[in-house]
Design a protein that fits this description.
The protein is built from 21 helices and 19 strands. The protein is α/β, with parallel strands linked by helices. The chain folds into 2 domains: 343 residues, TIM Barrel; 214 residues, Rossmann fold, CATH 3.40.50.1700. The strands form 5 sheets. A 6-stranded mixed sheet has the order 12-17-16-15-13-14, with helices on both faces. It has a 5-stranded parallel sheet with strand order 4-3-2-1-11. Helix 20 links the parallel strand 15 and strand 16. Helix 4 packs across helix 16, helix 8 crosses helix 17 and helix 9 packs parallel to helix 11. It is globular, with a radius of gyration of 26 Å. The protein binds alpha-D-glucopyranose (GLC).
Length: 660
């Protein structure tokens, strides 16, 4: 049953307040004109104000508005708020949004409008919002997207280095600046909620999501939770601003600390596996960043992990999926740590729990999950949960707690007053100012691991030979979660500068030969760019789809050919994790880890040519061999190729080592 109140054309932004006034009128409560301006009601307005639905009155405290609205909602409306669907499941018939009382939609990786432009994104989200506002209580929609290194789904957005590179910068202020830009580009194009930052602590680089982590040291990851401030601002009132979004720290918890070979998802090896640990070690390694994110940065949302935990200090305990752990979701996170936001399940995550669907739903809701990412089975989820509540197996108090948490976020985001996209900043998407910050981030993320004979910095006058596919491939230097879920090789999907273009912008005499087939005589410097092609999640696990930490045959051949022929040889690694270079390192005079720098290849050239100094430091341990994994700072018999925290700095012609 839906009502058709007067609704503005989407994109009307500020005029939307009038919409809700009109909606309130339809609810039998003529809102005084003054309510739109949130001025105190006087005279005849006082009577009208007395009849205003309290939840539509922006002058009231959020807690009161939540209480009032909750008291008006039916069970179906409440369950609808707990349900998130993929936009693809309603795009053909957007009226399903109201029919299902959906509280949220998401764009999964690659789920984009056509054309994939800022305006089309804002129009798309506003179109869905208009449908949501036709519901009886006109509760606005939350729209979520994975802006994990910039608004990566949007062509033309600024694409920042993935978190592993941001961890190498050791610059929490820069991370906050990155996420403020990302929030600006995301909110201006519609989504008010990002499933970022990942505060996973990567302990085994054979994990396909290692690059989504700021590093292996929980203290470093905790320092980088300034990302939440970048997204949300530092005051609750900031969330309503057009340059802020609701953040989500993920994946709670221990997703990067699972044991290789324990995954039961498809042919994954370690992603979604089992974290075998004691409570004490779990708190120190996996939980710590969440405590900071909640208590220091007041993160508004948390996404539990697909992975499981198995307690070594609880005899006989088996693995418990995070989405089913009442101990961790409710007792620890909500009660002990004080998390007052809401929990969003991962994509279909509850279907990996034991039992039939009704059991999976009941188990996760009762464990403390608040909203459910049910991309294509939202109706079935709603029916199952309704049946569980009516059978008394899920208490209404749990439903009310979940819905209250979700509504509070919507009020804080200002969505009841301004449900449509505020496009004030839409022209800033991919702006030169934003790209300049990303370029600085790329430069600060570069880690110089070897620099014999002062090979670096380069001089623009040098004759330079560049080899390797990853020298000239935007898709490879951006990695996964870029325009599509898995990412893709090539230079056509989005604008940016490749590393080769950056080198050519810095020096006039550059020859490029991807396979090093061109003659190598007559050059002062050879640069060989090695690395990986894009992947995401368990599809990037070592052992899946041919993934390994070893170098490809082509990369080894390029190093052999170029470094044996040209007197000064520099190797760059464009990858989401350390690769095994032990055998090739002696051939190189200099070795740089570039990680996944994103759209601004110029930032790599800036440090290669000394426009900026190398300052980056390893956020993870660099193994001598794949067999050494997992290997982390603090391990006994710690004998890596390069230790956690290592990085050479260059000041002019001086190179010095640093650790930490
Ligand atoms: C994925 C990821 C999660 C992401 C979500 C929505 O499976 O695990 O990080 O936020 O689905 O795309």
């Amino acid at each position: 049953m839906t009502h058709q109140p007067l609704l503005p054309r989407p994109g009307s932004g500020r005029r939307a307040a009038g919409v809700l006034l009109a909606a309130a009128t339809l609810l039998g409560a003529a809102l005084p004109a003054s309510a739109a301006r949130a001025e105190p009601a006087t005279g005849p307005d006082a009577a009208a104000a007395a009849r205003t639905p309290r939840y539509l009155d922006p002058r009231l405290p959020t807690a009161e508005r939540v209480r009032d609205l909750l008291g008006r909602m039916t069970l179906e409306e409440k369950i609808g708020q707990m349900t998130q669907a993929e936009r693809g499941s309603v795009d053909a018939d957007p009226t399903r949004i109201a029919a299902l009382n959906l509280g949220s939609l998401l764009s999964g990786g690659g789920s984009t409008p056509t054309p994939n432009t800022p305006a089309a994104w804002a129009d798309m989200v506003d179109g869905y919002q208009r449908q949501a506002l036709t519901t009886r209580l006109h509760i606005p929609l939350l729209y979520g997207v994975d802006s994990v290194h910039g608004h990566g789904n949007l062509a033309g957005a600024t694409v920042f280095p993935h978190n592993i590179g941001m961890g190498a910068t050791r610059d929490p202020g820069l991370v906050a600046e990155e996420e403020h830009i990302t929030a600006t580009e995301t909110r201006a194009t519609g989504p008010q909620w990002v499933f970022a930052p990942c505060v996973c602590v990567t302990r085994d680089e054979r994990w396909g999501r290692a690059y989504e982590s700021f590093g292996e040291n929980p203290a470093l990851v905790s320092r980088m939770t300034t990302a939440v401030d970048g997204f949300q601002g530092t005051r609750r009132s900031d969330l309503a601003r057009p340059d802020r979004v609701l953040a989500t720290v993920k994946h709670f918890a221990g997703d990067g600390d699972t044991t290789y070979g324990t995954s039961t998802t498809g042919d994954y090896r370690i992603d979604r596996g089992v974290t075998v640990t004691s409570h004490r070690r779990f708190d120190a390694v996996d939980l710590a960043p969440y405590v900071t994110a909640v208590q220091a940065h007041h993160v508004g949302s948390i996404m539990p992990s697909y992975s499981s935990v198995q307690w070594t200090d609880v005899p006989g305990s088996g693995p418990v999926r995070m989405s089913a752990s009442k101990e961790l979701l409710t007792d620890v996170l909500k009660r002990k740590i004080g998390f007052d936001g809401f929990l969003i399940s991962d994509w279909d995550a509850i279907t990996e729990l034991p039992g039939d669907f009704a059991t999976q739903v009941r188990t996760s809701v009762n464990a403390g999950m608040d909203m459910f990412m049910q991309p294509y089975d939202a109706p079935q989820f709603e029916q199952a949960l309704s049946a569980e509540v009516q059978a008394g197996r899920v208490p209404m108090s749990r439903i009310d707690d979940a819905v209250s948490r979700i509504l509070r976020a919507k009020f804080d985001l200002g969505l009841f007053e301004h449900p449509y996209t505020d496009r004030t900043n839409i022209d800033s998407v991919g702006s030169s100012a934003h790209r300049a910050v990303a370029r600085r981030a790329v430069a600060e993320s570069q880690v110089l691991l070897k620099n014999d004979h002062h090979a670096l910095p380069l001089a623009p006058s040098q004759r330079i030979y560049v080899a390797g596919v990853n020298a000239d491939d935007l898709g490879n230097q951006a990695g996964g979660w870029t325009l599509t879920w898995q990412g893709q090789s090539g230079n056509t999907a989005f604008p940016g500068t490749t590393i080769l273009q950056g080198i050519r912008n810095a020096a006039p005499n550059v020859t490029y030969s991807a396979d090093a087939a061109a003659p190598t005589t007559g050059y002062d410097v050879g640069i060989v760019v090695i690395g990986e092609t894009p992947y995401a999640e368990g599809l990037g696990d070592v052992g899946v789809g041919g993934h390994t930490l070893e170098l490809s045959t082509t990369d080894r051949a390029n190093i052999d050919r170029v470094c044996s022929a040209i007197s000064t040889c520099i190797v760059l690694d464009v990858a989401g994790r350390p690769q095994i270079v032990t055998g090739q390192l002696p051939a190189a005079d200099a070795f740089v880890m570039s990680w996944l720098p994103g759209s601004e290849g110029d930032g790599v050239a800036d440090v290669l040519f000394g426009k900026r100094p190398f300052t980056g430091r390893l956020p993870v341990t660099w193994p001598r061999s794949e067999a050494q994994e997992p290997i982390n700072i603090g391990d006994p018999q710690y004998d890596p190729l390069f230790p956690y925290g290592f990085g050479l700095t260059t000041r002019g012609r001086t190179t010095s080592a640093q650790l930490g």
